[in-house]
Amino acid sequence: MNLSVDPTPAPLQLNTTPKPFSVFDGCDHMVEAILFDLAVQTFNLIIGFPANILVIIILIRNRHEPSTSDIFLGCLAFMDAYFGLMVPISFLNLFYWKSKEGWSALKFSYGVKDTSGPLFLSCICLDRFVAVVFPIAFGQLKHIKYRVGLAVFVFCLTFAYASAKTIGGLPNFEKIFTGEVLATFTWMLICNISILWALKRSRGAGKDEMHPMKKKAFKMVLSILCIIIVNYLPLVAMFPFQDHYSPHAFTCYVQPVGYAFLNISSSIQPLVYLSRLEKIPFLPDSLVRKLRCTKKPEQSPA
């Protein structure tokens, strides 16, 4: 009888049971921040979606007398409207469908929001920057083909990023978004501060009042700067320190809260644009004045 022992070790019995799919992405017991982000997205659906549609309608109505940055504003409003429209799908998938297909659709929309917002806002800042700081070059680059080309390029970057986010599995993929936010935030900050400085200096010697058009541009750039600080500063402050958080804490708490600040821009941006208009279609002048906290101009006596 052969009693020799086979030296080959027996194969280990590994547990190859696939990890069950979760729409909360591993945060089933840490959902507070996710629900906070969802509440912000609900605000986007109720307020931001109609506001973005209104912005698109206004831009279409003014297409015969467009501003040079209208194409970027229109693209931004369209993307934000699409993102707001995905909120019902988010609710349905979290609490009813719980499907991978629904989660993939949501991840794609998150990728669109992650990229399109910062990039199109950067394009608007670039347009204003060249117009104010380099007016001669701006006159030479005023043709719409340059802006269409830039918008198409941003769309390509957006869909490439969103597709990669949907597919998943790329190592350190979130750091791409962190780098993008840091780069765009820095660019927009420098850009807008330069514009404000140039407009301030353009008063000229002995002039106390700024030219009305420049004053309007100053207010617009100041509002964009406020949007940048409110919506992007939390991301810039938290995301670069990803390695200092535990993976669960970053995924379940830091990311959703940071994204919530970014997501609310889908409502803030169109509302800021509408607040700068003298007249808003489909809304009575009395309501517009109340929203802008302005009084009805008094008529001078005859």
TrEMBL record:
Residues 51-273 form the G-protein coupled receptors family 1 profile domain. The keyword Glycoprotein applies. GO terms for molecular function: G protein-coupled receptor activity. GO terms for biological process: phospholipase C-activating G protein-coupled receptor signaling pathway; positive regulation of Rho protein signal transduction. It is found in: Membrane. GO terms for cellular component: plasma membrane. It holds the Pfam family 7tm_1. The keyword Nuclease does not apply. PROSITE patterns: G_PROTEIN_RECEP_F1_2 (PS50262). Its main location: membrane. Keywords: G-protein coupled receptor, Glycoprotein, Membrane, Receptor, Transducer, Transmembrane, Transmembrane helix. The chain crosses the membrane at residues 38-59, 71-97, 117-139, 146-164, 176-199, 220-241. SMART domains: 7TM_GPCR_Srsx. It comes from the Eukaryota. It is a multi-pass membrane protein. This is G-protein coupled receptor 183.
